[in-house]
Amino acid sequence: MFTSLQKVHKWDDWIGLLIAVIIISLWFASLFDLLSIPISDTSWFWLIFSIVGRTYLHTGLFILAHDSMHGNLIPNNRSLNNLIGRFAVTVYGFLSYDHCCANHFNHHCYTSQSGDPDFHGTVDNPIFWYCKFIREYFPMRSLIIFLVNVTLLTWGLTTIFHVAFTNLIFFVLVPLVLSSLQLFFFGTYLPHHQLYENPYFSPRLQSNYYSNLWSFFSCYNFGHYHWEHHEYPKAPWYRLHSIHVRN
Q1: pTM of full prediction above 0.70
Q2: Model confidence over 65-118: pLDDT tens digits?
Q3: How far from 23 is each of 56, 154, 186, 188, 201, CA to CA, in Å?
Q4: Among 78, 109, 120, 174, which is disulfide-ready with 129 (CB 3.0 to 4.6 Å)?
Q5: How many other CB atoms are found less than 10 A from the CB of residue 170?
């Protein structure tokens, strides 16, 4: 779907698969562990740390799906690439993989202009922009599917497995909301916010050890190295910093 001159490295299949296994495994392991803990006996520090960790892993699910949409997750095995992408975006929020692909394709084709579902249009207020961003990925059909599945899962977990409702709120719902804010703020708002010097796209940012760490922890490189992603959409997220160095 997306074209680029960026070469596919022979180890990218294994690296992508390993990263997918790590993120998905940590997501499920942390979920099963945290759903069983008594929140009343948990310190505020560990509660906040757990929510932040779950948020980061939840964002990682969408990053896996995003790389899959570009064919970058498992470059030489399109079937496995798409299978993992569909699974990741389903676990993320019961989103439609095909709808996300179509939206993201338009984002790259019509960046920061009419036709870009990630762009704010005529209203650049971040709150309204965020609402538009969510509406683009959660149209009515997707929203209904999401609500039905969440209701059924909540009923099953609380009734059959006796999971506390507060645990579901803190470790499932809150990380999902925070993850959407993380993806929007670092991956959409900051890089595509209209600047006086550059009204349509953010410039390349400085790259060093500290910025690389911040880039990784803020949004898996898609905030700080967003220019690189648009210029080289076939490069997986973990290679974006190296593309910055070479160019």
Answers
A1: yes
A2: 999 999 999 999 999 999 999 999 999 999 999 999 999 999 999 888 888 888
A3: 10, 23, 20, 22, 30
A4: 120
A5: 21
Q: Position of tokens 């064919």?
A: 71
Question: In the numeric block, which tokens belong to residue 219?
Answer: 């949004």
Q: Name the token pair of 157.
A: 């977990």
